[in-house]
UniProtKB/TrEMBL annotation:
Keyword terms, alphabetized: ATP-binding, Glutamine amidotransferase, GMP biosynthesis, Ligase, Nucleotide-binding, Purine biosynthesis
Name the record gives this protein: GMP synthase [glutamine-hydrolyzing]
Protein's pathway: Purine metabolism; GMP biosynthesis; GMP from XMP (L-Gln route): step 1/1
Gene name as annotated: guaA
Pfam families reported for this sequence: GATase (PF00117), GMP_synt_C (PF00958), NAD_synthase (PF02540)
EC number: 6.3.5.2
Cited CDD domains: GATase1_GMP_Synthase, GMP_synthase_C
Amino acid sequence: TVLVVDFGAQYAQLIARRVREARVYSEIVPSSMPVEEILAKNPAAIVLSGGPSSVYEPGAPTVDRALFEAGVPVFGMCYGFQLMAQTLGGTVDNSGAREYGRTDLAVSKPSSTLFEGTPAEQAVWMSHGDACSAAPEGFTVTGSTDVVPVAAFENDEKKLYGVQYHPEVMHSTHGQQVLEHFLYRGAGLTPDWTMGNVIDEQVATIREQVGDRRAICGLSGGVDSAVAAALVQKAIGSQLTCVYVDHGLMRKGETEQVEKDFVAATGVQLKVVDASERFLGALAGVSDPEEKRKIIGREFIRVFEQAQLEIMQEEGPEVAFLVQGTLYPDVVESGGGTGTANIKSHHNVGGLPDDIEFELVEPLRKLFKDEVRMVGQELGLPDEIVQRQPFPGPGLGIRIVGEVTEERLDLLREADAIAREELTAAGLDREIWQCPVVLLADVRSVGVQGDGRTYGHPIVLRPVSSEDAMTADWSRLPYEVLSRISTRITNEVKDVNRVVLDVTSKPPGTIEWE
Ligand code: XMP
């Protein structure tokens, strides 16, 4: 395992993904983790991430010198690079020599471990205030920029490497190659981590965890729960029953899709529970987003417990396990990975009630979304499931800003179906990550239709492009497509007289509105 030490911001997750793209398994640990604990995990190599701090800020995260003396190969990036420089006796000054964005790096030692075979001049992505002016003793300077004399260094004997820039971002043209040089040449690792391995390992783990008891799995229609279910089905076969809770917050045609496509692909036992009245009842009068999320999470579990009882009556042996499609970013964002602030209580992690009666099976807990898709493909699931855009567990319940009612759900379902239809017709499904359609139920605006004044609700389109949902940008959709969606929605959906486009990136906005 390669450990990525997280010094804040969003860099660590991206680095972890890049390491895995190099087919080496990686995990994230918080920078607050004591060095003994980090080393006790026996890492094959360590990457120190960038972060928002300056090494001169009081209270800025530091790193224990022992980390560099344990004989484990270390690669410092940006803030991690400066920490490495400072801790080992180099000079870092905050002379105001700042660089942001695209910069040219001049490689000064073409035969170095990191840069061999890459161009002498290469575009790199910088984001720093302080700069290293002298490398620590024993280190060779391997690159510089116009502003920074020491922009990359290495001590090959001690297996310590660093770059001032961010090799993990796309704009650093040879970043992935440099990272791979560190992993393969510097740390001597072999690229042998594959989805096949993940499946074998998970199948064995699940078999051991579940034994001869039974598990149930909630299917949401999304990729994650589908792949989790297929994986558990492979491990324990008929000891698994899938439960599909129709909470009434689904999109148009979704229930039928699960019943048809998924069962056909896996042959899994499926129990469909119609619980829409129960969810709508519990949500009556509630407009607060977190409260909605908690209620939906709680009711989910209750419905599963009910399903568990029924399945036990039918099948006999104990149903002790609940399978969930929790992903690595959910774990990290809910504070499980890095101590990062809790941004939203994703209902499959933070929003669980305390009195839960199942043991959880979470076979995707260490995977990123693109890896889940690869696992799904490997397991033989059809493209309609594996390439499906993400849809949140709480469904349309968190896409109605205001109270959730049957009438509003029907209205949103219509608008959403139109948007999806047009995006698919325009061939844009692969290009956008997802496109939430949001009803601003508490907002009304004046319009005119036919000869009459209307006083209706706005619908928000939120098309985003993203690699992992951690950060996102709004998609620049063609005007004609937007226009068609807008015209159709305002013509075909009762009580909607305005369509607006959300042009906010994440951060500062999140993808969903609640
Ligand atoms: P945000 O809104 O946090 O969304 O930028 C990031 C991604 O997560 C999805 N999402 C959820 N998925 N349960 C889920 O399974 C949830 O409670 C949940 N909330 C948000 C969202 O659609 C986006 O893909």
